[in-house]
Prior knowledge:
About 40% of the residues lie in helices and about 20% in strands.
Amino acid sequence: MTAARPHPILVTRPEEPGRLLTTALIERGADALWLPAFELAPAPDAASARETLARLATFDLAVFVSPAAVRATAVLLHAPWPTATTIGAAGHATADAVRARLRPGDDVRVIAPDANDEGGSEALLRALDAAGLRLARVLILRAVCGREWLAERFAERGAEVQALAVYDRRAHALSAAEGARLAQMGAQPIDSVFSSSDAVDALHARLPHAAWDALLRGVAVASHTRIAQRLAEAGFAHVRVAPLRADEIMAVLEGAPQ
């Protein structure tokens, strides 16, 4: 167990990855609270999603934007992954989820950012360029919206791009218990962990003013430079970029301002 961080840590990552990260931080001595920015829901049109997934073999590349997209697709997909369709994963955790949940055959190519890259749309494009793929049709597996930048880049390269909503994403409503816990934290700075740029505005719209002000004065850890830029634009005084693993986060926070 590492030494406890003097400030509480708010983890905004949704679903199981966020819950597990919070548990790991607590095990390392942190006062961590899991407050997901979003709740994930099933595909808004499951029948349409299944119909598109039944035609996976007509796409040269299918891109998973997150582990949540992988989990949602696994529920909707009722056939083995076609060998003709390369899988693109926007990050290392997403690639791990692909192998664990979809179990593609050895003849299915899975492309993800280099191990030394931080992940995200830009890193995935770099990995795809390095692979030298010729892409005529691309399917992006995502929530109802998001990753428009990635779709635009594929279109600029001459690919026909289709985005498929395999799950929905809704802003998390602050519960009475969560509100009380935030109030207990008082006026001290609150450190935070962010896994998406959209989470910044979602939390700002729902947190009490005092809690938001405490976040702005704490250290925000972002999983990607694009998220870090959004945090800085929102007024966060101290922003760091690090992999969203408990040991990495604690190491970053230990060297941060008190």
